[in-house]
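Notes taken during the Thursday session

The instructor put the following on the board and asked us to keep it in front of us for the whole hour. The protein is tRNA pseudouridine synthase A. We were told not to look anything up and to reason only from what is written here. First, the residues (266 in total):
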Amino acid sequence: MRYFFHIAYQGQYFSGWQRQPGVKSVQEVIEQTLSKIFKTTIPIIGCGRTDAHVHASQFFFHADFEKEIEFDLLFILNKALPYNIAVFDIIKMEGKPHARFDAVQRKYDYFLHTYKDPFLSTQSSLYQEANLDLHKMKAAVNLLTKYKDYKAFCTHPNKYDHTKCNVMEADLFVNAKGDRIRFNIASNRFLGKMIRIIMGQLIKVGKGELSVDEFESHFISLEIGNIIAPAHPTGLYLSKVTYPYLNLEPRTDLLSMIEGAHWISI
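Then, after some discussion, the predicted structure tokens were revealed:
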């Protein structure tokens, strides 16, 4: 019996989703919890990977069980998991759908603020840059849906069969005061640290250290240069995962959670 689990987690105290030796991962914590409940090893497969300290307001994983679950696993699992991991739904699936390979779209949101605020420190990335040129940043964002090869925006492009991504949506938002920024992007797939590298380059555009034409040249040359500066992980959220057979709205209202901002498209 295959089940999909609809979850969310705060990533600041984890070294990413994927199990890795010697560090604490979301996958490991959930697998250990499930194994204690079922008294046997329960491996799980996630819908993707998130970097260390990156959050997910919507995430799916699948797990196989020998027989149908006939007790309130949702309640028991949420009681056993730490406060920063929540399970919203456990869905019995027909056949063998795959949480990672079957996903057709993933959306991410990146939040940054330009003034120090202790209540935003675990939700949004701090960049004390008071005069970012948001219009130039938006011009660079508008280029993202026009190109397919994101080789220049990846830490290890050679590990992939190809580096093409179908970026379907990309937008930049700001609050009324201009000191809170949200970057939104949706694609069929993402490469290693791709969003954080894009965001790092967008910040350089906003600071005047990189022109919009130079930003676009990354897509043409497929090179980003010797210095790759990914944006901080804290403000990054995997916020929506869509399947041909499953399209649930996120349980967490991310835009309300990052409170105090009425987001305006630039």
